[in-house]
Design a protein that fits this description.
The protein is of the alpha+beta class. Helix content is about 25%, strand content about 30%. Strands 1, 2, 3, 5, 6, 7, 8, 11 and 12 form a nine-stranded mixed sheet that branches. A five-stranded mixed sheet has the order 4-14-13-9-10, with no helix packed on it. A hairpin with a 3-residue loop joins strand 13 and strand 14. Helix 1 packs across helix 3. The termini are far apart.
Length: about 260
């Protein structure tokens, strides 16, 4: 069996070079979720060794329907680095990804650490500001085929993110309407309530799950709360714009 560090190198190279790879679980059927998180940590450590810096965390599978679809009862998480952050309205280069998709999210930035089992009130008290965001997710697996450990090992598919203007932490983001348009045509309509019923619950989950890995959410960390709609596939030439009720909008172009 290939070592976890060896698998992490494979996953990291696939992301770095935008090269599709076979499912890990095809050749490593005994791969567990804990193994997958260890691979994720090792893979992101390789990025940091190349100079990338910690930026925060992303949450995934935050929709009850998505959990049921993949047969899990808990959300997943991944790590964000500064190299993954894309400037608002900047071009997204399609060639840097394998199967890129975009989904609307709520972003939190923290003003103090958050760790372990916390209440929604405690989580909110740690928030400095909140913003509309779009996450670029990308599976490096061939034919977009994978099992849960594959996804987690692949940094829970997180590959990039845009963050809009920051609003006060007291802003109510529990049930905001969202409209995602591509070339002026609506492609996704939803609500922030799709994120565990309220995005703050995702931040609560982040504090708990990251602590299980021996880490914590730190002041200055950005936390992406999870997709509020299904992810939409990206192709060159598109102009993507997402409008969040009362929070504003953000957009980007896709180039080859």
């Amino acid at each position: 069996m290939t070592s976890l560090a060896g698998i992490a190198q494979i996953v990291d190279e696939a992301a770095r070079t935008a090269t599709p790879i076979p499912q890990l679980t095809d050749s490593q059927p005994s791969l567990t979720v804990d193994d997958a998180y260890a691979i994720q940590a090792l893979s992101v450590a390789r990025r940091r060794a190349r100079g990338e810096r910690r930026a925060g965390f992303k949450m995934g599978l935050t929709s009850r329907a998505k959990m049921a679809q993949v047969g899990v009862s808990e959300v997943v998480w991944g790590r964000l680095t500064d190299a993954m952050r894309l400037e608002e309205s900047a071009v997204l280069h399609r060639a840097r990804y394998v199967h890129p998709r975009v989904e609307p999210e709520v972003a939190y930035i923290l003003k103090k650490p958050l760790e372990g089992d916390v209440s929604a009130a405690e989580a909110l008290a740690a928030v400095e500001a909140v913003a509309p965001a779009m996450e670029i997710i990308d599976s490096r697996y061939r034919c977009f085929k994978f099992a849960l450990p594959d996804v987690i090992a692949d940094n829970s598919s997180s590959s990039g993110f845009y963050v809009g203007g920051w609003a006060p932490a007291t802003s109510d983001v529990a049930n905001l309407g969202i409209l995602m348009e591509v070339d002026g045509r609506p492609v996704q309509v939803g609500s922030t309530a799709a994120i565990l019923g309220n995005p703050i619950r995702s931040l609560v989950a982040a504090a708990r799950l990251v602590a299980k890995a021996g880490e914590r959410l730190e002041a200055g960390d950005i936390v992406l709360a999870g997709g509020a709609t299904a992810a939409y596939p990206l192709t060159p030439g598109q102009f993507v714009q997402t409008t969040f009720q009362s929070l504003g909008r953000l957009s980007f172009h896709v180039e080859a």
